[in-house]
Amino acid sequence: MYVIVVGAGDIGTPLIEIATRSGNEVVVVESSPEKAEFVAAEYDCLVINDDATVKETLSEAGAHRADAVISTTDEDATNVMICLLGQELEISSIVSVVHNPEHRALFERIGANTIENPSSLIAEYLYRAVKRPSIVDFMRVGEEAEVFEIRVAESAPVAGRRLDDAGDELLPEDVLVVAIEREGESNPITPRGATEVQPGDLLTVYSARGATPEVTDLFGHYEDRAKAFAGGGVRSRLSPQSPPNASMVSSGRSPRANNVTRSSARISVSPRGVSISSSRSTETTSTSGST
């Protein structure tokens, strides 16, 4: 497969490593000379140190024969332009990272497959690992549904039960056991109605409501319920007057003012094309402390 990767940052570099290791023909477009030089020295790929939002650059990268272009830059505005150029150059598969969730629909509208910001995905994964310790792994499906892995505890209500019996008496209609990994079995078990769930089994489960405590209870993991009822600890550390979206500001021992410059880009698509506007504002926040 011939792949053009735009961006050799925290997301692009591991992607380049995987793609080259898998035997694909990879061309990297990176605007930073330092990053371009690093990738050229480390990986078996062609590197172009240029601006990928220029059509000629993608043409030079071999867009006419590329199977895919993957945009991994830090800016959604840049990624949008690359996706539009990829569409114009008739690259069959166009994939992009989306940093701002509000822009996802826009990317999909112009025909790009999108991947949510990996940093957000990792943050959510870590949070859920703490909140739901029984869940080995999970994947979101839509807004609420999840496919997750969970191990059956000795005391689980489903332990020692046939799946058809458990389905009739315990499992909600929107919960389905789709695979079972069992010690001593070389391959996962495809569950049937007569399949018995055993303590220690690692189940792959689909739940339309996600891995709620009501669901994880069935597999003997009551600690998830305890975690769910223990929420709110972080909020209690804010002042009683703090609104839900309050920011925590570190203050020194003497009064001082912090100038914070914020910049943002707004992207919109109309029948006439893409519009990208940016704004920058400066705000001053005062902090004080006492000894």
TrEMBL record:
One of its GO terms (cellular component) is plasma membrane. Signal peptide: none annotated. Pfam families: TrkA_C, TrkA_N. Residues 267-291 have a biased composition (Low complexity). It comes from the Archaea. Residues 1-117 form the RCK N-terminal domain. Residues 133-221 form the RCK C-terminal domain. Residues 238-266 have a biased composition (Polar residues). PROSITE patterns: RCK_C, RCK_N. SUPFAM superfamilies: NAD(P)-binding Rossmann-fold domains, TrkA C-terminal domain-like. One of its GO terms (molecular function) is potassium ion transmembrane transporter activity. Transmembrane segments: none annotated. Keywords: Ion transport, NAD, Potassium, Potassium transport, Transport. Residues 232-291 are annotated as: Disordered. Part of a potassium transport system. PANTHER family: POTASSIUM CHANNEL PROTEIN 2-RELATED-RELATED (PTHR43833), TRK SYSTEM POTASSIUM UPTAKE PROTEIN TRKA (PTHR43833:SF5). This is K+ transport system, NAD-binding component. It comes from Halogeometricum pallidum JCM 14848. The lineage of its organism: Archaea, Methanobacteriati, Methanobacteriota, Stenosarchaea group, Halobacteria.
